[in-house]
Amino acid sequence: EADIYQTPRYLVIGTGKKITLECSQTMGHDKMYWYQQDPGMELHLIHYSYGVNSTEKGDLSSESTVSRIRTEHFPLTLESARPSHTSQYLCASRRTGPADTQYFGPGTRLTVL
Amino acid sequence: AQSVAQPEDQVNVAEGNPLTVKCTYSVSGNPYLFWYVQYPNRGLQFLLKYITGDNLVKGSYGFEAEFNKSQTSFHLKKPSALVSDSALYFCAVRDWTGGYNKLIFGAGTRLAVHP
């Protein structure tokens, strides 16, 4: 098992709430990623970071924001959750080389009522 | 742009039979290819990867994959399926286009192994 952690694992909240999904890794990886996974399985990259103070948007437009103040920590925030944000969110990390394996956290399943 | 395709949404196999989950890729240059497995309510777990060298790559849980450059394929295989192998399987390729380095995932294949 990879040393990458996500909390909470499950979250049910009401519309309009602000939420932060936590992701941390103890492997010293520079690169970190957030994916959104549809109920139908497909993975969509929504944010990535190449290191501290580096964040970029991914392929799928998302209303969420991320920050990377410490190497090991890459939280995702939704300022005002909506039912359309209901999904599984997966965090991942890897070392720098292109051949390096990308490791995933266990995911956070978010339900917005 | 790099891409991968998993042509089957679902694969059904009887326990004890060999299994194959298909993946084809389209890349410019040499591909870096990966297989992941996802169990219910879990993240993706790394199974194996092909970077260079031997075309037959061995991975976790008895899985292996064969890189075939002429057919641009990287099919996942296991000689004898277990019911516990039932899960979602994702093929991925490393992409360097668009100014950053990322994994491109296939749509996933659901493997169902029946007793």
Characterization of the model:
The complex is a heterodimer of chains A (113) and B (115). Chain A has 113 residues and is mainly β. Chain A has no helices and 11 strands. In chain A, strands 2, 4, 5, 6, 9, 10 and 11 form a 7-stranded mixed β-sheet that branches. In chain A, strands 1-3-8-7 form a 4-stranded antiparallel β-sheet, with no helix packed on it. By secondary structure, chain B is mostly beta strands. In chain B, a hairpin with a 6-residue loop joins strand 10 (87-95) and strand 11 (102-105). The interface between A and B is medium-sized, with 26 and 23 residues.
Features:
heterodimer, A: 113 residues, seven-stranded mixed sheet, 11 strands, 0% helix, globular, B: mainly beta, four-stranded antiparallel sheet, 12 strands
Q: Main sheet of chain B?
A: 6 strands, mixed
Distance between the termini of chain B: 41 Å
Shape category of chain B: globular
What is the radius of gyration of chain A computed over CA atoms, rounded to a whole number of angstroms? 13 Å
Number of strands of chain B: 12
Structure summary:
With 113 residues, chain A is mainly β.
Layout of helices and strands, plus pairs?
The complex is a heterodimer of chains A (about 110) and B (about 120).
Chain A: E1 4-7, E2 10-13, E3 19-25, E4 31-37, E5 43-51, E6 54-57, E7 65-66, E8 76-78, E9 87-94, E10 103-104, E11 108-112
Parallel strand pairs in A: 2-11
Antiparallel strand pairs in A: 1-3, 3-8, 4-5, 4-9, 5-6, 7-8, 9-10, 9-11
Chain B: E1 3-5, E2 10-14, E3 19-21, E4 24-26, E5 33-38, E6 44-50, E7 56-58, E8 64-68, E9 73-78, E10 87-95, E11 102-105, E12 109-114
Parallel strand pairs in B: 2-12
Antiparallel strand pairs in B: 1-4, 3-9, 5-6, 5-10, 7-8, 8-9, 10-11, 10-12
